[in-house]
Amino acid sequence: MKIVSRREMSGLEEAMHQRGITSKALIGRVGIAISEQLKEMVEFPDTKNVAILVGPGNNGVDGLVTAPHLAAAGFSVDVFLCADKGRYDQGLIGALGERVECTDLTQTGLESFEEEIHQFDIVVDALLGIGRLRRIQGVMAQVLHDVAVSFQANPERLLVAIDIPSGMDADTGEVDDLTLRATHTLAVGNPKRGFFVSPGYRYVGAVKFLDIGINPEEGASIQCELTGIADFQNAKEFLHTTIDAHKGTKGHVLVIAGSSAYPGASILAAMAAYRAGCGLVTLVSPASIFPVIAGQLPEAIHVTYPDLESDGATKEAIRLIRTLEIGNYDSIVIGCGLGSGSFQSSFVKKIIEFIGNGSNSIPVVVDADALNCLAGMDSWWQNLGKNFILTPHPGEMGRLVLMATDDVQKKRLDIAHLLAKKVKQITVLKGAFTVIADREGNTYVNPHATSVLATAGTGDVLAGLIGSFLSQGLPQLLAVKLAVYVHGQAGEELGGIVGQRGVIASDVANYLPQVINKLMA
């Protein structure tokens, strides 16, 4: 599904008009789709009171058209007009009928609304849509304030935004001071870019998509997509194993990771690679942590090098890794828990040069401290070979592009896209709604956003997971998209089993087979 800007959404609607679908017909589709979605969200419609807050523009029209459909389905519906009644289509007002109570808040005063709003089980925000924003004032400002106060007192209700929470910028995710935090947003046609950047993603709640009949070819040129299960059907042919498979046919991952401060990072990356189905993992790590990690991961082939604590040790570590037959591996993961400093920077630079010069056909996942080391180098991207995958979290991305983390979060889609095109490497910007950008300028947004994964080591798990899928022969972009999806799905499912607190990275790694096997069934 395409993720659209304000301008792109207008273009899609215009394409529908050119196909002969009138504005009236389109509005009718939207009203039916909203009412059907609300019916699915509640168990007993005839016991629910619904307040629809109606603004003066197209978003308000959607609310007006929805109201009689909800009333026909058994809901008790009240419409609150938040602009002068004369600004509305009188035909739509008349169509509300006797079953819908309609109140013009510009005439009745707001004292009664402040008292009434507490009684509603569902509040529908149909005040402002994706049009050009202005500061919310007047009646709408007071209405939004009263609703916010009401939900603070009783949050166990539904607050449903039509298309977008009022006051949110569809492109940037910026919000008005009065923008409400929806429990659900019903996106008309396509999700908007602002849903997936800060602060927008904190306001949309659970996003549902309303099919209004847009043809896929009408959005073919849009370069931003939301990934979903349907994207991974052809992954089955790559992950399918035969009865005569053996460890040598299921992929061999080389993991260069760990330090005395972060021995667990190497374990988590290697464990995730195995749990995702590869046949072999060679784990290259400092000698000091070998006694710790060998017992934790007996399945791995272990290679050690001197701890990076001096020039001599670093040169010896580089020499030892250069003795490896890089062509024997199907993918490489480097960076998890390496630590950062001058010795680590020298190590990373030389190893990445060695890998890039040795074989440009082997995909390389560059994660964590390897990214931090690269960020300290001038024109760092020139050190990379052709098939590198960068997996920064927002802080690491900020160091790579010389931006504050908060600014990265506000422009996640754009920054991932621009960096991937500049350095010509697949880039994964981790976080809520992880962003994947390919070398051609296409951007893919993962649908998962869960605080369950906000714990140490889950990034190492993702790095190993990507490396594993790459080693099993999946095309690079498919491997990355599938790994990110599986990682997010594992977090969401564990949240449902364990709860939002207490899941640790090794839980995620050990749960990967369940998610993968269900997807590939």
The CATH class name of the largest domain reads: Alpha Beta
Largest sheet features? 10 strands, mixed
Q: Spell out the CATH superfamily of the largest domain.
A: YjeF N-terminal domain
Across the major sheet, the strand order is 8-17-16-15-14-13-12-9-10-11
Beta-strand level of the residues, as a percent range? Answer: 15-25%
Number of distinct helices? 19
Oligomeric state of the chains present here: single chain
Flag low-confidence runs: none
Number-wise, the strands total 17
Name the structural class.
alpha/beta
Task: Report the end-to-end length measured between terminal Cα atoms.
Answer: 23 Å
- Shape, please? elongated
CATH domain topology of the largest domain: Rossmann fold
CATH level-two architecture of the largest domain: 3-Layer(aba) Sandwich
Radius of gyration: 26 Å
Number of domains: 2
Helical content band: 40-55%
- Average pLDDT confidence is 95
